[in-house]
């Protein structure tokens, strides 16, 4: 793993000696994406360069050619149902379930195995960050996108370290949220411009 010209490059070689993996990390390319995301979060924390004022949206290269199956989690009932209705109004997404707390979210993910999880951080019983860690640990192939009112260091870094593939603020419009869901479903990462401006206004993104 190395960084060249602002790009994080990962190479994988097989030395024919096998490997040992921690059970919580999982194996395979999907799990590798989660671990690389956590490495990036650590580097961000050290250098404090957060996406610039433009935000970041990068497609991972895997085309989405059918409606994305989405689970939504938020502890505010009216917001939850309004968001679900708005996102389901088009043809891009299919909302297959929603939850109001962390335990319900994790059970729903286990049952439905969605393409993407869209979650708030402030939830009772088990908060969103802990739920993200549980989901990405058990199902590393299911990307998690955060939609939160918080843009502080602790919340953003905590979500990324837990394995979130993207972070938007609740001021985002429907089209921005839909596009973000499609990007993470395709293996990409999305971080909104407001989050980028919150972290120092650097012009050079660390993710490509």
UniProtKB/TrEMBL annotation:
InterPro entries: CheY-like_superfamily, EvgA-like, NreC/VraR/RcsB-like_REC, Sig_transdc_resp-reg_receiver. The modification 4-aspartylphosphate is found at residue 120. Keywords: Phosphoprotein. It comes from the Bacteria. GO terms for biological process: phosphorelay signal transduction system. Residues 69-185 form the Response regulatory domain. This is Response regulatory domain-containing protein. It holds the Pfam family Response_reg. CDD domains: REC_NarL-like.
